Amino acid sequence: MISQSSIFAAKLLIVDDQEINTKLLEHILLRAGYSNVHTELDSRRVVARHQAEQFDLILLDMNMPHMDGFEVLAGLKALNPLGYLPVLVVTAAPDHKLRALNAGARDFVSKPFDRMEVLTRIHNLVEVRLLYKASRDYGEQLAHFDPLTGLPNRSQFRRLLGEALELARSRAAPLDVLMLDLDHFKQINDPLGHACGDELLCQLALRLAACRGERATLGRLGGDEFGLILAGGGDGDDASDAVALAARVRQALRAPFALAGREVNLSVSIGVASFPADADDADTLLRYADTALSRAKEGGRDACCFFTSGMNERAQHRLELETGLRRAIELRQFELHYQPKASVGDGRVGGAEALLRWNRPGHGMVAPAGFIPLLEETGLIVPLGAWIIFTACHQIAAWDRQGLGAVRVAVNVASRQFASGELEAVVANALADSGIDPDLLELELTEGSLMSDAEAAIATMRRLKAGGVRISIDDFGTGYSSLAYLKRFPIDTLKIDIAFIREVTSDAGDAAIVLAIIGMAHSLGLSVVAEGVETAAQLGFLARHHCDYIQGYYFSKPLPAAQFAELLHDQRRMPLPDGMSAPPAPTLLVVDDDADILLSLQRLLRGDGYRVLTAGSAADGFALLAQHPVHLILCEQRMPDMSGNDFLDKVKDMYPDTFRIVLSGHTDIAAIMEAINRGSLYRFYTKPWDNRVLRDNIRAAFRHYWQLHGARFELPAPLPGE
After folding, report:
1. Contact in structure between 642 and 615 (CB atoms under 8 Å)
2. What is the mean pLDDT of residues 15-38?
3. Between the CA of residue 518 and those of 327, 476, 627, what are the distances in Å?
């Protein structure tokens, strides 16, 4: 590293046409300890002087007569087009800053300047300049320093860490290694270009150098990853020191960076490993700090994470799993299972989704959640995804040869596979090799993979559609896709995510989302598939609202190819819940946790020609409402799982056309009146009831329903005496 004496002996040149400014800066620098300070009032002489004297840093004012600062920068750059320009720009004009950086300046300070800020920036730039000169002067040592920032590179950082560890051992002192990585750097580097990315890394290096303190050594480890070696201060509280340094680093990045005429906000993730607590050698410390860095990123980014032994176990497990996945691809240990999609209208099988399964030797079947995220993270999903498409196409052809007919199979396409640029060729080759009708292959894409670059996604999908394949959007409703883009996507199907299906029969929000997706899809001419359907109630709700297909354990789990062939051969159909195909009838639902009450009301009201459904709990009531068109509800107020008012509140939101009546022996007048006022109740009756009065009022309620909604059912005959 560069000593403080070397820094203060650096050769500096102050360039300004105002002598008072050069004198002020010269005074500040001399007072700070710099001993080799020169001044220049005529900007036209700067290039020649630098060529002759080789200054370590030039403090350059931009607004000067005869030759402005930009012309000076151009002249300096002409001396060494590929070299390092040791220039700190001093300017009062905000628009000069970015122009100066783009012209090759290393940093800038604004007029009027702050004394401490100027000294800090000069100190950092001089240190970087001297490091750069040292790497240039010592020839082969050039490989040990980063040419962009002048900081020690990974190999040099590793050597410095080894030396720091030796010193820490001799003093019985602690030491911390911090690894830093910019969050979402690719999202800046790709659209703005690598030149802006390089400039950002240079600015970042300067900020890190400014906030590191006297006991930390900084290096660039590669890409957007930096490292810090923090020597212990001897007070036994090195963990607090590391926390404080991490906090200073994160705070230093709070201010936006100026890039390409815009302000860019950044955050950084940090991983920390400590000597002697975690490890006592350089390689292990670096590995553990990297493990902690990965955990920090997983935890939401803009975070600092200290290494723990549990992380090492997790890292070892991840390495073992990745090795196993690579071996599984080589040895073809993967297989496809097929989950049927059934028509909601008639229960027939209308296709299948191909799902990846891993039968790992010594472990058995590994759950998809246990390996698919790692496939995507490592990029192994791209070659494996090609195998899935190839295998699914050949399985479609095999079923057709067996006389089982044309089966449409959907295949999930990961984001990395979609963005790889290889998908179209993979699909074309699989279709040609298998000889199947392209319409029998459906590609399931996620909203996230489409919205990262919507225009490019649209172009790719149009080319795939031109080849004859079908396209669906998987897990719809979770990816926040723009509706303006949705109508432009050349798709055939929307799949409703399981998250909205689980409680669709009892949660008004989920029900509203599902109905909106179905209505929107049909208005765009798309079919709708609901995934994760497990109960007759869910199916009943979806059928009543015209969902086209379902898949889930209600009908079938994913099956190996041979078992799926048996299902096709036997022409199995999905069982449809009772009442789905029944003609409309005046239907009444009674909800009460007293079985005797249910039986009594069922006997009483069936005699009047109503279809009477009974439920012993609110949950059972929601299930029946999902499966049957219900016009009128009688509900007990006090039930163990949910009060009658709460139940009817939810029913009002999900089934607003129903007439809702409380029939209860418990009279909480305030609660009942509140429910009536907010529209949850149509009527309130008390137990015990008068049979004739209750029958008469229910008949009147059905007549009122018929008048409001025009329901096509016959009302029962009038009671005797009417």
Report:
1. no
2. 90
3. 43, 11, 17
Which is more confident, 685 or 284?
284
Residue 427 pLDDT > 70: yes
Helix H or strand E encompassing 464? helix 454-466
Alpha-carbon distance of 595 to 636, in angstroms, equals 12
Residue 705's alpha-carbon distances to 287, 502, 656, in angstroms, are 71, 31, 12
Pairing, β 268-275 against β 304-306: parallel
Helices and strands counted in the chain (H then E): 28, 27
Judging by beta carbons within 10 Å of its beta carbon (0-12, 13-18, 19+), is residue 420 exposed, middle or buried? middle
DSSP bridge pairs for 560 = 337
Q: What gap in Å lies between CA 336 and CA 532, rounded to an integer?
A: 18
φ, ψ at 495 (rounded to 5°)? -110, 125
Query: Which residues lie closer than 8 Å to 209 by C-beta, 6 or more apart?
Result: 124, 127, 128, 218
Half-sphere exposure of 565 (CA within 13 A, CB side): 13
* Nearest in space to 232 (alpha carbons), one of 192, 174, 284: 174
CA distance 592 to 182: 59
Residue 485: strand, helix, or coil: helix
Pairing of strands 632-635, 587-591: parallel
Give burial (CB, 10 Å; 0-12/13-18/19+) of 719.
exposed
Closest CA to 371 of 361, 382, 383, 357: 357
Do β-strands 470-476 and 409-412 pair in parallel, antiparallel, or remain unpaired?
unpaired
Longest Cα–Cα distance in the chain:
122
The three-class DSSP label of residue 261 is coil
Amino acid of residue 274 = S
Give the DSSP H/E element, type plus range, for residue 448. Answer: helix 447-451
**pLDDT at 234 > cutoff 70:** no
pLDDT at 139 over 60: no
Strand, helix or coil at 301?
coil
Q: Residue 187 burial (CB < 10 Å; 0-12/13-18/19+)?
A: exposed
What's the pLDDT at 353?
A: 97
Q: Which residues of 455-469 are buried (b: 16+ CB within 10 A; e: fewer)?
A: eebeebbeebbeeeb
pLDDT at 175: 92
**How confident is the prediction for the chain on average, in pLDDT?**
85
Q: How far apart are CA 489 and CA 472, in angstroms?
A: 10
Span 299-350, pLDDT tens digits: 777 788 888 877 667 767 777 888 888 889 888 899 999 999 999 988 999 8
263: which strand partners? 258
**Six-digit token pair at 308?**
């723990």
Beta strands in 404-537 (DSSP E): 409-412, 441-446, 470-476, 493-496, 527-531
d(CA 157, CA 144): 8
Digit-coded pLDDT (tens) for 72-128: 988 888 776 556 678 888 887 766 766 777 777 877 787 777 788 788 888 888 887
pLDDT exceeds 70 at position 238:
no
Residues with Cβ within 8 Å of 232's Cβ and at least 6 positions away in sequence, in order, are 168, 173, 174, 175, 176, 215, 238, 241
Comparison of pLDDT for 186 and 19, the residue scoring more = 19
DSSP state of 622: H
Interatomic CA distance for residues 602 and 479, integer angstroms: 47
Q: To which residue do tokens 């022996």 refer?
A: 665
Compute the chain's Rg from CA coordinates. 36
Residue 37 has pLDDT above 90, yes or no: yes
Helix, coil or strand: residue 605: helix
| CB atoms inside a 10 Å sphere around CB 718 | 9
Report whether pLDDT(226) > 80: yes
- The pTM (predicted TM-score) of the whole model is 0.59
Torsion of CA 202, 207, 208, 213, to 10 degrees: 140
Taking a C-beta distance cutoff of 8 angstroms, is the pair 591, 636 a contact? Answer: yes
Give the percent of the chain with pLDDT over 90.
34
